[in-house]
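LAB NOTEBOOK - FOLDING QUEUE
OPERATOR: T.R.
BATCH SIZE: 2
PURPOSE: Compare the predicted C-alpha cell outputs for two unrelated chains run back to back under identical settings.
PRIORITY: normal
REVIEWER: second-year student, initials M.K.

ITEM 1
FIELD SEQUENCE / FIELD STRUCTURE:
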Amino acid sequence: MAEEAAGGARVMASPKGLKEFCTQLLQKLGVPHQEAEVTADTLVSANLRGVDTHGVMRMTYYTAKLRSGVIKPKVDLTPIRETIATALLDGHDGIGQVISHRAMQIAIRKAKEAGIAYVSVRNSNHLGACAYYSMMALPHDMIGFVFTNASPRLAPTGGTERLFGNNPWSIAVPAGRQLPVVLDMANSVVAAGKIRVLQKEGKPIPEGWALDVDGVPTTDPEKALKGILLAIGGYKGYGITLIVDLLTGVLADSAYGPRVKGMEAENEVAHIPLLRSAEPLGLRRGGGLQGQDGLLHRGDQGLPQGQGGRHHLPAGRAGVPEGAGATGEGHPSPGQGGRGAAGHRAGVRGADRAVTWADAQTG
C-alpha cells in the first residue's frame, strides 16, 4: 500500500519485510549476514518506537558511506586496554550499530562478573538510536547507560561557532513486571533529522529550535541546518553536552568537539556503553583529561558572539569571580516487537504491525 505524502510516496511495509530488505542491501555491499541483521534490526526498531529520524531513512547515508569506503563493511572490534570491569575498544571505522551492539554485550558480560562495567569505544560511526543499546541491559535486570558524541551542531551558550555535537545519551531502567523506564535524548532542543523532515515538506521549523549562521533565531529549516541547534535548557544543555564529550571522545582518546566529523565526511565517533555505574580506571593514561582542555576551554578567546552580544562562559567559569583563573517511554527490549503509542505513530497497524517507511531515499 502506498499513499501520497509530501516529498514523495509513503510506503507501508511489514517490519519483517523491511528488516529483510535492509539486510540484503547491506550484504550486497559486503556486510556479513549477521552484522547486516543487527544493523537492520536497530533501524526498524527505531521506526517501531516512533523515532523515524533514526530508522530506515538512514540507509541512504549508510550505503553511501559503505560504497565510499568511509565505513568498513566488516567490523573489526579490538581491545586496547581491559580490566575485569572496564574495556577500551577500537572500532576501526566499522558500522556503528554493530560496534555498539558488541560493546554492550561485552559490558553486560563484565557487569555479570564484576557488578558494574564500563566499556568505551573509539573510531566508530553513527550508531542510530541510543535506546536500542541501553535496552539490551533490561533482560539481564541491569540498568543500561549509553553515551556518544557527535559532529558539531551546538555552540557554547551565547556563541555562534559550532563546537559540540548534540551528543545523545540513553538510560534504560528495569521495572519488574511493569514496563521499563527508558530515556533516549540528545542535548539539542530537536534533532537535525526532524529539521530535515520539515525541510523536505516545505514547512518552517518552530521558533526556539535553531539559529542561523549569524546567531539570529530562525524558522527557516535550510538556515537552521547551516547554523546552530539550540541546546535544551540553554547553558544547562551546553553543560551536559560538554560532559558527554568529555566522557566519550576525550576519555576514549578519540575525536571530540569540532574534531568529530559530520555525515558528509569521514567519521571518528566515540561511544560508551555503561552498566549500573562506572569507575573508568585505566582507560586513558598519560595526561588524561587535563591534556585536552585547550579546545574545551577556548572560552573568551575570540569566539563569535550571538545576537545581542551576550558572551558565553568558557567551561568551568560559571561561579568563578571575574578576573580569577579558571582552574581546574517504556518499551520492551529490542527484538521483542513491542508496540505502544510510539509504535502506532510509526505506522504500526493491527495484526500486521506494518511500519511506515517514508522518505527512504533521504539522508
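ITEM 2
FIELD SEQUENCE / FIELD STRUCTURE:
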Amino acid sequence: MQQPVESSPAPPCAVAAGGRLTHLADLDALAAGDLGVFFFADVRPLMGVAGLLDWHLGGQLSRALSSGALSGMAQEQTLMATDGRLGRRRLFCFGLGIATAWQPGLGAAAAAAAAQAIERAGGKHWAALAPVVPHRAQVEAEFVAAARRCLAATVPILCC
C-alpha cells in the first residue's frame, strides 16, 4: 500500500528558485526580520518584488508614491509603517534615483547605505528586494551582483 504524500510548505525565498520569488507565499515564509525594498523614481507601476510587495500591502507603496511621501529619488531612506500586514517585519524603502541614469557602481553604494540604515535601526536579519526596470533586465542583475559584493552573505537578495 502506497503512503499518502504530504505536501510541504513553500520553501523560504532565500532558497526558492535561487533567491527568486515564485509566489506570494515565498514572501510570507521569508525568515528575515526586516525587508529593504529598492526602487527607482521613474519606474511606475512598481514591478518585480516591489510590485508584489505593494500588492501584498494593498497598494500602500503606490499610494505613498502618489502622495509624495515616497519619491524613489537617490539616497531616499524611509521606514514605512505596514499596519501589521508584514507581521512584525519592518519595511525600509530605498530610492535609487532615475533609472536611465543607472550605473552598475550605484548598486553597491545603495546596498551599503541600506545595510547601515537598517543596522542603525537595530535590524540584524533582513532581506534586500531588488529593483526591476522594464526592458533592461541587466539593471536587476547588476544590482544583485553589486549588492552581493558588499552585503553580508546572510542577507538574501530577492528578485521576481
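REVIEWER COMMENT (ITEM 2): The helical segments are 24-29, 48-56, 60-67, 105-120, 137-150.
FOLLOW-UP: none requested
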